[in-house]
Amino acid sequence: MGSKWRKAKLALGLNMCAYVPRTLEDSSPSVEPAGRFSDADLLSPAARSSDCLLEMPTTPTESSSGLRLSKHSIKSSKKTCPICLTTMKPGQGHAIFTAECSHSFHFHCITSSVKHGNQICPICRAKWKEIPFQSPASDLNHGRARINQVAWPHDDALMTVLRRLPPPRTDVNRHISSLFHAPEPGVFDDDELVDHQPEIIETSSFTKDVDDHSGAIEVKIYPEVSAVSKSVSHNNFTILIHLKAPPSSRGQNCRINQPNFPPISQNSRASVDLVTVLDVSGSMAGTKLALLKRAMGFVIQHLGPSDRLSVIAFSSTARRLFPLRRMTETGRQEALQAVNGLISNGGTNIAEGLKKGAKVMVDRKWKNPVSSIILLSDGQDTYTVSSPGGAHPRTGYQSLLPFSIHRNGGTGLHIPVHVFGFGADHDAAAMHSISETSGGTFSFIEAESVIQDAFAQCIGGLLSVVVQELQVRVECVHPRLQLGSIKAGSYKSNVMSDARIGFIDVGDLYAEEERDFLVTLDIPVDGSSNEMSLLKVKCVYRDPITKESANLEEEEANEVKIDRPEVTGQLPVSMEVNRQQNRLRAAEAIAEARAAAERDDLAAAVSVLECCRKVLSETVSAQAGDQLCVALGAELKEMQERMANRRVYEASGRAYVLSGLSSHSWQRATARGDSTDSTSLVQAYQTPSMVNMVTRSQTMFFGSSSPRPSLRPARSFPARPQPR
């Protein structure tokens, strides 16, 4: 049994004990059901297996979330503070508090936790009859900036007060944290001053070296075929425009805080303003909240001193835990304490959470070059969105997202909301709508243990932005040509009235991220020349670090031509063009199948996907064994299985399909399904920076200096297949 338990811990990436010992009020040695993790377990080195005393292996028990976990005891490390993860020894200048349950903490750490509403032990969840309380001035004596500055009376003495807790109330809201009732400023302009220097980041052997001279966007243009006979016209002639962002000439974005990692080098990147909007409703209790805290710990530890973070927690209402503040050593420590102090209660008010998150971004005095919001929820908004009932979809999703951060709201703000739907009960349609309206992505976290990997992939991209405000200009060269269509997915595109010029607004690109757009036009009969110039492409964008605009227009390199011979014969179709045509076919089929499924016609939905699979299998790229086509076929088959019946579709099919649509429409990686399953689908959109961050998430214990054993390849995070 011990061996099975160790394997289970490694597979979940936890390697820690899940046990809640009896409280002082309990006289029996009963054990809380194993799906409940303590609030601090997943942020504490004390939870590592080396510190756990297994009293008696027991039969693994199904948790409320479906994870199988064993029940056994946990022993807190006496050398490490479970909250801040630093050493805890007498005589080092920090007071140590030992609770009535025998667990010890840095005094300033546990008082911060209590300040955020926790009145139970973060390790064993024992209810304390007495809690530590720190005098207002003591924060200053420790040299630590308060999260919310208040004009307190000056007091030079460090007071340790044990405050007797009142008897528990009997009302249903007795667990609601005082955090949600403390006063907030009317305007969130209390953000910390940004560091105008580029973020200094650390790289290791996880990151390949890149040359500093490769700083321009790579543009390649592929015609459908290389020649069209002079005497023949060709309607809907397809041209592929392929863009690839430069590598980060200043290196990758992995922070190394552990001593056992390879040597590091200092490099710079664009700094980030990040707001995380986190669901802490009652349904997040136990394992979900613990894993969320661990994932947030990973995010906090990988943000740099120039990055700024603010955290919004929401349930029935919403609360800003702290303003945008730089993730210096002090900032990270206090952010960890604030997150670790979260407790779950109440309903799900997504709109209020997003309102607070948007307000942080809109009201801020200062701005970092890159801005984004991360939203995670496992439920459905029961306060804003109406539900007509029956099998009909809920309505009013637009009202969930404040207009100030709508992608096309005309406010000038570009704040994408990257949304994570957690588990089987979240409102996938609402989450997808929020991401689409804001210009972000929607990820479906089916397995709870994947949440950290999903967050890692997201921040791996956000911490590697190398191009901003990218606009692609397409212009016909030959005087007789006109643009037919521009297929750009969710990116805004338009064609001028004379059909000679078109534009695609791409926005931000991560390092080495790729975009593919298909343009069609009609090739007329033309015997005047042996060659015809079709299109030229111009890219205009801004460097996020220097703020300088770049205008990429190399006449020969960014112009596509075809031959016009008398006779052409049978010409091979461009493999690159065919691959992207297949990608668009698949995306269109997925959208059509989803529409049929929402009409309650699952048979038609499955038929659409099956027909698309058949068409793809007959294309030249599929027959050549192209990996993208293989992946698309596997993805379509997976969606067919998730549309087998209404129950399966409601539980996971809708979320899986919408996450796939989000990924294809933005050509950006999303998390889908259970990433611990090695029989995975191949995604084409993951960047090296995302791969590196996910690898770090999968191979490192949080708070440990030792890498954990390698896991199987992640389902949602495989390497990008290369063109043949």
Which helices and strands, and how do they pair?
Elements lengths: L1 H11 L48 E2 L5 E2 L26 E3 L5 E3 H9 L14 E5 L3 H4 L18 E5 L34 E5 L14 E6 L10 E11 L20 E5 L2 E8 L7 H16 L5 E7 L3 E9 L2 H12 L9 H14 L6 E8 L39 E6 L5 H11 L3 E4 L5 H12 L2 E12 L6 E5 L4 E4 L5 E10 L3 E10 L7 E12 L6 E4 L6 E5 L11 H24 L3 H16 L2 H4 L3 H15 L4 H21 L5 E2 L14 H12 L25
Parallel strand pairs: 11-12, 11-14, 14-15, 15-16, 16-25
Antiparallel strand pairs: 1-2, 3-4, 5-6, 7-10, 8-9, 9-21, 12-13, 17-20, 17-22, 18-21, 19-20, 22-23, 22-24
Helix pairs in contact: 2-5, 4-5, 4-8, 7-13, 8-14, 9-10, 9-12, 9-13, 10-12
Protein name: RING-type E3 ubiquitin transferase
Organism: Davidia involucrata
Pfam family, one: Vwaint
Provide mean pLDDT, rounded. 76
Strand content: 15-25%
Biggest β-sheet strands, sense, barrel? 7 strands, mixed
**pLDDT below 50 for ≥5 consecutive residues: which ranges?**
4-77, 135-179, 200-213, 250-266, 388-393, 676-682, 702-724
Spatial arrangement of strands, main beta sheet:
13-12-11-14-15-16-25
Enumerate how many helices there are, as a single number: 14
| Structural class assignment | alpha+beta
Count of distinct strands: 25
**Second rung of CATH, namely the architecture of the domain at 219-247 and 467-572:** Sandwich
Q: Measure the end-to-end span.
A: 48 Å
Keywords: Metal-binding, Zinc, Zinc-finger
Domain VWFA: 273-459
Domain RING-type: 81-125
Protein name: RING-type E3 ubiquitin transferase
